[in-house]
Automatic annotation (TrEMBL):
This protein's record includes keyword Oxidoreductase: no
Gene name as annotated: tmk
NCBIfam families associated with the record: PRK07933.1
Protein name in UniProt: Thymidylate kinase
The keyword Metal-binding belongs to this UniProt entry's keyword annotation: no
Family annotation (InterPro entries): Thymidylate_kin-like_dom, Thymidylate_kin_CS, Thymidylate_kinase
Organism placement in taxonomy: Bacteria, Bacillati, Actinomycetota, Actinomycetes, Mycobacteriales
Family label: Belongs to the thymidylate kinase family.
EC number: 2.7.4.9
PANTHER family: THYMIDYLATE KINASE (PTHR10344), UMP-CMP KINASE 2, MITOCHONDRIAL (PTHR10344:SF4)
């Protein structure tokens, strides 16, 4: 079975750019690596319903923290068989967001810490009831909130399909989410975490991921 690694961070942190660069490097070394991004927009009805709610559809769905968290959790639950196959066919599977994103954003919306009830509920729901695989490593891409927000804004201006949703427009939410992410990392929530910060050498990510192949 392959190794599951989740890359986490607020909107605009640069997860996709970093993952793409590291993936290309590792594939060049002959490592079988694939990626999967959550939410699975345009592939999952639950992800699409959540996205539509964050843009004003479906009544008061977006107002409920638990309802939105459940939508995102059901998206991942629907990908469980796909994840199992990807892990069977590859050395490394890198996820662009995973369960911790649900925990961090939900806690931030409720202004709870990583020790709060909603974080426990998300973990028990997704890793417990839905039996999703626990990552071997969760990496937090920790960048200043202001930098991430500006990147997200520019991205939305260049691509109408990526226009800012209600979460992305809320600067306070993004700031609180970053704080909860750091708390999750400090607590090694559901396994080991590693914090990668702005200015760090991307080569360290490649090396860290490659270590799992030689273990």
């Amino acid at each position: 079975m392959g190794v599951l690694i989740a890359v986490e961070g607020v909107d605009g942190a640069g997860k996709r750019t970093l993952i793409d660069g590291v993936a290309a490097d590792l594939r060049g070394r002959g490592i079988r690596l694939t990626t999967l991004a959550f939410p699975r927009y345009d592939r999952s009805v639950h992800a699409d319903l959540a996205a539509e709610a964050l843009r004003g559809a479906h009544g008061d769905l977006a107002a409920s923290v638990n309802a939105m968290a459940l939508m995102f959790a059901l998206d991942r639950a629907g990908a469980r068989d796909e994840l199992s196959k990807l892990l069977a066919d590859n050395d490394i599977v890198v996820l662009d967001r995973y369960v911790a994103s649900n925990a961090a954003y939900s806690a931030a919306r409720l202004e709870q810490s990583a020790d709060g009830e909603i974080v426990r509920w998300v973990g028990e729901l997704e890793f417990g009831r839905f039996e999703l695989p626990v990552p071997a490593l969760q990496m937090l891409l920790d960048v200043p909130t202001e930098v991430a927000a500006e990147r997200a804004r520019k991205r939305g201006e260049l691509d109408d399909r990526r226009a800012l949703d209600a979460y992305e427009r809320d600067g306070g939410l993004q700031h609180r989410t970053g704080a909860v992410y750091r708390e999750l990392a400090e607590r090694d929530w559901y396994g080991p975490w590693w914090i990668y910060r702005s200015g760090d050498d991307p080569a360290t990510v490649t090396a860290r991921f490659a270590e799992f192949i030689t273990r």
